[in-house]
Amino acid sequence: MLLTETRRHFTGRAHAFEGLAALIAERVIGTGCKRGWVTKRSADGGVDFVCRLDVGSEFSRVPIVVLGQAKIEPTIRGSDLARLVARLQRGWIGVFVTTGIFSRAAQEELVEDKYPVLLINGKRLARELRLLLNEEGISLGEFLEREQRWYESRLQTLDPARILHDAAFGTPVTPKAAVSDPENQ
């Protein structure tokens, strides 16, 4: 039911699903992950949204670029995943969110090639939607409209690496001066 209504909401504007997919990715990845922006359709190059995952804290914090792809499709195949995988750089991870399923061959290819891509299928998407609606006490329609507004306000054509240095995502990562240790002098 939730997936059917979600698909219906995004009929004719499937690109707007990318904002919702970024939110679901943020929730599934968990603490430390913040969604950044969605890419404009004409310039996405296989990436629909960008998030940032901060692992650790303070001096020991490492930011990681999270590239996302979103599709309202019944079945995602290996060729669908390949565009996202091709955009990953060393140390980055990918996340693919769909209202459908991932083919067995696509899943096997990711495992075999050890691609760092998190797969979120329609069942998990529906579970997260149900939790969000219960937490916020709003209807699916209200929720999807709000997420569509977020999407429209976050359309960007930016280099994904920029998220590592953007102050909106916390303190920019810069090398700190070496601290002298009097006991080792």
Instruction: Give the helix tally.
Output: 6
Strand order of the largest sheet: 7-5-3-2-1-8
Radius of gyration: 18 Å
The largest sheet, given as strand count, sense and whether it forms a barrel, is: 6 strands, mixed
Number of E-state strands: 8
Number of domains: 1
End-to-end C-alpha gap? 67 Å
| CATH class membership | Alpha Beta
Task: Return the CATH topology.
Answer: Trna Endonuclease, Chain: A, domain 1
Helix content: 25-40%
Structural class: alpha/beta
Account of the 3D structure:
- With 185 residues, the protein is an alpha/beta fold.
- The chain has a single domain (2-154), classed as Trna Endonuclease, Chain: A, domain 1.
- Helices cover 38% and strands 22% of the residues.
- The protein has six helices and eight strands.
- The strands form two sheets. The chain has a six-stranded mixed beta sheet, with helices on both faces. Strands 4-6 form a two-stranded parallel sheet.
- A hairpin with a 6-residue loop joins β2 and β3 (62-71).
- α2 crosses α6.
